[in-house]
Amino acid sequence: MVEPTDRDGPVSGSDSAGTSGSAMDDDSVVGSSNENAETQPNLRRRTLLGIGTAAVTSGLLTGLASAGVERKGIQFDRVVDAVDDLGLDPRGGGAISGTLSDVPSGTLVEFPDGTYQLGATDIEVNDRVGFVGTGDVTWRFDSGYRGRFLRASVDEFLFEGIDIDQTSKKEVSGHMRLLIGDRCVVENVTYLGRGYSAGYAFKPHAVESDAVVVLRNVSVPYGANPSVYGGNNDLFGRIGVFAGERHHGLLRILDCEFSDFGNNGIYASRTNGDVQVEDSYFLNNGVTGIRISGGGSWVKRCVVEVDTSKYEGPALDDGWGTWGIKAENEMGHRTEAEYPIREAGCLVEDCKVLLKDINDGGKVGAGIKVGLAERSLTVRNTEIHVDIDDGLGRSTHAVLRSNPYGDWDSYRKDVEVAPKPHSIVLDNVTVTGSAAGDAAVRIVNSEDSVVRNSCIQQTGSNRAGIRVFGSDGTVLEDSNVNVTGDAIDIVGGDVATSGLSYDESCSRDGSTGDGSDDTGDTEPSNVLTIEGLGDTADYAFTVDEALEKNPDQGSINDGDVVDGLTATGVVGSGDDSYRFDATVTDFSLSGDANVYVNGTEVDPANLGSGSTDDGSDDTTDTSEPSRVLTIKGTGERAEYAFAVDEALEKNPDVGTINDGDVVDGLTATGVVGSGDDSYRFGATVTDFSLSGDARVFVDGTKVDPSSLG
Questions:
Q1: How far is residue 265's CA from residue 237's CA, in Å, rounded to a whole number?
Q2: Run of H or E residues at 131
Q3: Which of 470, 452, 464 is nearest to 489 (CA)?
Q4: Angle at 263 between CA 431 and CA 13, to 5 degrees
Q5: Is 614 found in the same domain as 548?
Q6: Gap between the Cα atoms of 406 and 394, Å rounded
Q7: Which DSSP letter does residue 85 get?
Q8: Which of 54-63, 152-161, 211-220, 315-324 has the lowest mean pLDDT?
Q9: Distance CA 451, CA 428 (A)
Q10: CA–CA separation, 545 and 540 (whole Å)
């Protein structure tokens, strides 16, 4: 076992996050003021595809009757209107917390347009309750409110289409605590404004091993101050999503954004359950962008970025530090009996980690790190760009596999070292950028590691390529390493090398899957996705032109088969996705799953029926453009303009485009604030401009606006 001369340790104390019980477990509400929060000028605009909410004591709704309804796999006994039936004020004239805590089990509460005041106490919901916005709906904190604003310790809960207004004369920090025994969905939620540098945004826990919690299209772009973490009075830094020891099931985080948090964008590494993060964006988070662990947990098709030139909040401290993605499972204060050993096999796939710029005094340890107390990690089909130098008094690594035999804390109270395997596998990984010094990839005492089919090109001075300490059985093969220092530096250990080159360039492919390149027109233009909800669901469908598995989304395996124009498969808790042309002519589903066509949820019963306008009717499909472009507002005003080369119209199924958003032939112009604008188009986007902050999606996939056209 070889000990490196420099010790692997935390960035600015970042690895100690979460060991304080008060920091992780305190849900108390710190007294709020009676001052009303400032009104957010632009409410979120969207069209919901059907959802619901409500819950608590039986006396409140006596005499109200409505048919039962199912939303997102949750069965509700009744649907009520928050204003007409519950008497809530959509102008913010009275607190809603007490009334919502008295809604009986099995109730879906629909909120019409308006701003609703939360009040000084949190909402305690009963089982099978749902809260859903049916228009432009915002819940607003009292000025200075800090703590939990909603607690759902239930089997089933639904929250959708309601934005959370954290703009205030005094800073606020509110969060939802979810302790779920069966199923919970939180969807289409944006936190407006910038939060206070303590607390959380979400604390989701699937407390049973077969329970599932889903966060979908949740956006918190201005979490707090990313440089505030620890040692600052009561400020431990705010966490975007925290899942701890009570999490035993599955947490899925899909199509979300968590940025500017001081204590991890997602902190979900010290759990007993799985965490799966897909199609999401993370910018300038302190400590770590995404932090997970164990087999069954993964990060797929995400962008994790550090670039403080994009930061617009309060002044950054000069001693903060961060990592991009980190796998670790250190629980040295628990025994193995109290906290069982996680399975090996954490995964990062189809991601981009971009380390571009950090303020003076800031530190970045690595783009992807495997901590001392993690067993193994595979990184596949991923791009890492590193321009940042001199983190930790040395350079920033693209990939760091820390020493699993290191002396910083222990894996468990009674288990000093995590059980093998200790490997890291880099497969088809690209490393680029101008970082100088040390090594792009550093592997320490990690037996049977692999670097294959990868390309490393770093242009900074004295930059090594791959540096391996110990690590018997490691293989470096079929890769290019083009650096200014030693390409391969092996310090002890039995390491095999073959098929290496040292002078090729490594390209950064920013256009994959964005639909803007004419050369990609040979691919089918529509996307059909089947989202598993935890239980096994079988599906089969047929299209009338071109069908293939979608390499940009989902995890289709050998049991999911494409045979000509027909596909069959099974989903559980993941997604299966396909590309196709023209229309779906037949679709069958046995079990519970959500189905999306071009990013829009559809009723599976209508696919192939010839009776709806959801893309299944041959008589209407020929007149509707088949692709979808959506501009999602983040709370700030953003102006856009774009052009396409075939067919353009407003999308009636997504967003709420108004008279200020104009389609003129093959060109569209408009403005978004905290809502969504969406368009249908044919073929490709030939030009796109954006002034302001917004997220852009093509056929349900987030793209870089600068790559369009």
A1: 11
A2: strand 129-133
A3: 464
A4: 80
A5: yes
A6: 19
A7: T
A8: 54-63
A9: 8
A10: 16
CA distance 71 to 85: 20
In Å, how far are 306, 400, 564 from 126, measured between CA atoms?
A: 40, 45, 48
How far is Cα 195 from Cα 193, in angstroms, rounded to an integer?
A: 7
Which one of 578, 604, 621 terminates a domain?
A: 621
Is it true that the peptide bond before 421 is cis, omega within 30 degrees of 0?
A: yes
Q: What token pair was written down for 75?
A: 């069965």
Residue 418 C-beta-side C-alpha neighbours within 13 Å: 33
Contact residues for 292 (Cβ-Cβ < 8 A; gap 6+): 266, 268, 269, 275, 277, 298, 299, 327, 346
Q: Which two tokens stand for residue 416?
A: 């000093």
Same domain? 692 vs 636: yes
Are the C-beta atoms of 423 and 447 separated by less than 8 Å?
A: yes
As a whole-number percent, the residues of the chain with pLDDT over 70 amount to 83
| Range 275-303 average pLDDT | 96
Lowest mean pLDDT among 220-224, 301-305, 547-551, 630-634: 630-634
Strand segments (E) across 239-343: 239-242, 250-254, 257-258, 266-267, 274-278, 281-283, 287-292, 298-300, 303-307, 321-327
State yes or no: pLDDT of 66 exceeds 70: no
Residue 183 reports pLDDT greater than 90:
yes
d(CA 330, CA 284): 24
pTM: 0.72
Residue 22 burial (CB < 10 Å; 0-12/13-18/19+)? exposed
Confidence of residue 532 (pLDDT cuts 50, 70, 90): confident
Beta bridge mates, 375:
none
Residues 256, 235: Cα–Cα separation, whole Å: 25
* 217 contact partners, CB below 8 Å, separation of at least 6: 187, 188, 189, 254, 255, 256
For the chain, how many residues are written? 709
pLDDT in tens, 494-512: 999 999 999 999 976 533 2
What one-character DSSP code corresponds to residue 373? T
Residue 153 lies in a domain: no
Q: Is residue 671 part of a domain?
A: yes
The CB-side HSE value for 1 (13 A sphere, CA atoms) comes to 8
Residue 652 and residue 603 share a domain: no
Residue 304 reports pLDDT greater than 90: yes
- The span from the CA of 333 to the CA of 700, in Å, is 43
Structure tokens of 81? 């209107």
- Which pair of tokens denotes residue 496? 């095999």
Lowest mean pLDDT among 59-73, 288-302, 344-358, 491-505: 59-73
Domain total for the chain?
2
What the block records as the tokens of 320 is 């903060």
Whether 552 is covered by a domain: the verdict is: yes
CA angle 61, 64, 68 (to 5 degrees): 100
Structure tokens at 378: 């595979």
**What three-state secondary structure class fits 153?**
strand
